[in-house]
Design a protein that fits this description.
Oligomer: single chain
Number of strands: 6
Shape: elongated
GO molecular function: lytic endotransglycosylase activity
Distance between the termini: 87 Å
Protein name: Probable endolytic peptidoglycan transglycosylase RlpA
Order of helices and strands: HEEEEEHE
CATH architecture of the domain at 40-134: Beta Barrel
CATH class of the domain at 40-134: Mainly Beta
Keywords: Cell membrane, Cell wall biogenesis/degradation, Lipoprotein, Lyase, Membrane, Palmitate, Signal
Strand order of the largest sheet: 1-5-2-4-3-6
CATH topology of the domain at 40-134: Barwin-like endoglucanases
Function: Lytic transglycosylase with a strong preference for naked glycan strands that lack stem peptides.
GO biological process, one term: cell wall organization
Largest sheet: 6 strands, mixed, barrel
CATH superfamily of the domain at 40-134: RlpA-like domain
Number of helices: 2
Length: 152
């Protein structure tokens, strides 16, 4: 009896070890970073966009929000940080500059402007699963230039 259980345990272990893994359902981004120019991986999650209702209002950084500019709201990134946002559903990507705080909805990682959402192909759905990378060229990018103060 003990030997039968041992053989059964070994057989189950072998079958489990030989089982195939499920196929990846999310396509890899067309322009996935590789090599030393890739930028730093910052995470992945849900992105949403904001625009028309906030256009022209002050952001947390003090600048006026332009819904067509390539900007974003992030909870912790420094203002002026350049991030590359990659839509994991279609492989499209866009570089955005962080100028606001958010998103404040549970489960979301970034809010992008309407202009950035258009480039990511997420306007119709309103949400997209994305990966975030720090721009590899951020040190020489216009995205890292200091913000101009607002008049008045």
């Amino acid at each position: 009896m003990g030997r039968g259980l041992l053989l059964l345990g070994l057989a189950l272990g072998l079958m489990t070890g030989c089982a195939s893994r499920s196929a990846r359902t999310t396509p890899e981004p067309r322009d996935a970073p590789s090599g030393k120019d890739s930028g730093t991986y910052l995470g992945e999650g849900l992105a949403s966009f904001y625009g028309p209702g906030l256009h022209g209002r002050k952001t947390a950084s003090g600048e006026r929000f332009d819904q067509e500019a390539l900007t974003a709201a992030h909870r912790t990134a420094r203002f002026g940080t350049c991030m590359r946002v990659v839509n994991m559903e279609n492989g499209r990507s866009v570089k955005v500059r962080v100028n606001d705080r958010g998103p404040f909805k549970q489960g979301r990682i970034i809010d992008v402007s309407q202009g950035a959402a258009r480039k990511l192909g997420m306007l119709e759905k309103g949400l997209a699963r994305v990966r975030l990378y720090r721009c590899a060229d951020a040190a020489v990018s216009v995205f890292s230039m200091p913000l101009e103060p607002l008049p008045g």
